[in-house]
Specification:
This protein is an alpha+beta fold. Helix content is 35%, strand content 26%. A hairpin with a 2-residue loop joins β5 and β6. α1 crosses α2. The two termini are 40 Å apart. Bound molecules: guanosine-5'-triphosphate and magnesium ion (MG). The site of magnesium ion (MG) has 2 residues, from α5.
Length: 370
């Protein structure tokens, strides 16, 4: 079974450990602050002290969330690819995204409001594509550490007049570690007589090999300024996606990832979520790490209200009670109480972990000062 330290139990009852130890003595139990109590004993003590005991088993709770989902391969449906544009500073990532956004998203849809969210979906003749604004590499790393995969394809932007640079290489390493295919967009070809051959050679050193040389990587020359090659880029992305046979279940409770989050002074916590599974509906109970809530409003990249979101669609959500962490997984649940309990449980766990860490740090300091 589960065990709990005397100090942790005291913590949960919001009393000092000494008080608990004294109380336990009065019950005939002699224990030290670090002693482990089994679940039954801890429960008895807490109840004797007038507390209502709620037993949590993180694994069970997490499992029960997952089990709410129908897992049936015949329900898998094709979904649009999720694409991240990466590359060295100033090589044109934002320009490329902006060009695609401005040419592919009808302005009239926006209703005059232009919001800059970290993800958007575009419609092309051959299909939908979801783009993510380059998350900082830190966010990327944290998602990978949690085993959260968000991007299907990485478009590596290399400016033709600057060539392969440190962050180009870093992006390749991220792609390799995440096992995501890389499509190379040689950018700024309007600027100079391009010499993509040289870039191809430089990238070969990092295991990025063009298809025409027997490798796996598609190369395309573009200009984010004139728009040259961008339609081809979109087509090639869809071609790559087709080979990958990207699928997801689009029924049942949703699962997604927090792409960005911030506090709006008037509206409270706002999060951009990329839906990965199921359908998220207005009014759904949601849980992400230590935050939970209810979807009060959902909007797309142009601020239009939507009632349902299916896989690969990025949406902006209003309704979290606190700020969800970027990179964390979001679940929709059909039980508000469970969402709240799990959120509180995780908050406590986090607090304990932090305390433990602080203690360790203090110990380290002691040793350093000796
Ligand atoms: P960071 O976000 O700082 O890493 O840069 P970025 O990769 O987003 O580059 P950004 O889109 O900001 O472009 C950098 C500069 O290059 C800007 O001055 C752009 O106008 C310019 N630029 C981007 N693409 C092109 C292009 O295709 N042709 C030309 N001539 N200029 C470009
Ligand atoms: Mg940029």
């Amino acid at each position: 079974g589960e065990f709990i330290k005397v100090s942790e139990l005291a913590n949960k009852m919001s009393i000092k450990s000494v008080e608990l130890i004294k109380k336990m003595i009065s019950f005939g139990i002699i224990a030290t602050i670090n002693q482990l109590l089994n679940q039954k004993t801890a429960q008895l003590i807490a109840e004797k002290m007038g507390h209502k005991v709620i037993l949590y088993n993180k694994n069970d709770l997490e499992k029960s969330i997952i089990c709410d989902r129908v897992i049936d391969n015949t329900l898998l449906k094709e979904r649009p690819p999720v694409v991240t544009i990466m590359g060295h500073v100033d090589h044109g990532k934002t320009s490329l995204l902006d060009f695609i956004r401005s040419t592919r998203i009808a302005k009239k849809e926006a209703g005059g409001i232009t919001q800059h969210i970290g993800a958007y979906q575009v419609k092309t003749k051959k299909g939908l594509i979801t783009f993510l604004d380059t998350p900082g590499h830190a966010a990327f790393t944290s998602m990978r550490a949690r085993g959260v995969k968000i991007t299907d394809i990485i478009v590596l932007v290399v400016a033709v007049d600057d060539g392969v640079q440190p962050q180009t290489i870093e992006a390749i390493q991220h792609a390799k570690a995440a096992n995501v295919p890389v499509l190379v967009a040689i950018n700024k070809i309007d600027r100079i007589e391009s010499d993509p051959e040289q870039i191809k050679h430089a990238l070969m050193k990092h295991d990025i090999v063009p298809e025409e040389w027997g490798g796996d990587n598609i190369f395309i020359q573009v200009s984010a300024k004139t728009g040259k090659g961008i339609d081809d880029l979109l087509n090639l992305i869809l071609l790559q996606a087709e080979m990958m046979e990207l699928k997801a279940i689009d029924q049942g409770l949703a699962r997604g990832v927090v792409i960005e989050s911030y506090i709006d002074k008037g509206k409270g916590p706002i999060a951009t979520i990329l839906i990965q599974e199921g359908t998220l509906k207005k009014g759904d109970i949601i849980l992400s790490g230590c935050s939970y809530g209810k979807v009060k409003a959902m909007t797309n990249e142009v601020g239009k209200n939507i009632n349902k979101a299916i896989p690969s669609l990025p949406i902006v959500i209003l309704g979290f009670s606190s700020l969800p962490e970027i990179g964390s997984v979001m679940y929709a649940l059909n039980d508000e109480k469970k969402a709240r309990e799990l959120a509180i449980y995780r908050q406590e766990k986090n607090r304990e972990n932090k305390l433990d860490k602080n203690r360790r740090l203090k110990l380290d300091n002691i040793f350093e000062n000796m």
